[in-house]
Amino acid sequence: MSHIQWPAIILYAGDDELTFVHSQRDWDSDDGFMQTIYATDDMLIDLTGNAFRISSVNEGFLLEPIAKPKTLNEINSIIRRHFAQSGNCCVSKFHANSIIEALQSVMSSE
User: Fold this and answer.
1) Could you give the CA distance from residue 9 to residue 15 in angstroms, rounded to a whole number?
2) On the CB side of 42, how many CA atoms lie within 13 Å of its CA?
């Protein structure tokens, strides 16, 4: 199983909103993450582009690796949609040169 390389973002199925997750510690200790009921296609994407499907189970969740990592182009597109949904202008010009730079742009926008 792949291990998550932090930081990461949560991509919610059917919604362009993203949530930035700083670290494993934040993931484990934030009640918001623990109490969320995740949809079937919600996923966590880490700084290497590895994606993990988040499944709610009992009083927690399961992270299942998705075979194909997200490319930088896919992540740039995901983040452009997030910024557009948030009402930012000129989102079509957004382009990060690395996945970590892309993820940090989400953190900066919070």
Assistant:
1) 13
2) 17
**Does residue 69 register a pLDDT over 90?**
yes
Go through the chain and tell me how many residues it has. Answer: 110
Task: Give the whole-angstrom CA distance, residue 11 versus residue 45.
Answer: 7
Rg (CA), the chain: 13
Whether the Cβ atoms of residue 64 and residue 52 lie closer than 8 Å to each other: yes
**0.85 cut: is pTM over it?**
yes
C-alpha to C-alpha distance for 30 and 45, rounded to whole angstroms:
18
Rounded CA-CA distance 45/65 in Å is 10
Question: For residue 96, what are its two tokens?
Answer: 């990060």
Per-residue pLDDT tens over the stretch 80-98:
999 888 777 777 788 899 9
At residue 28, does pLDDT exceed 90?
no
Measured CA to CA, the distance from residue 11 to residue 43 in angstroms comes to 5
Residue 47: how many CB atoms within 10 A of its CB? Answer: 19
Of 35, 37, 67, 32, residue with least CA distance to 52:
67
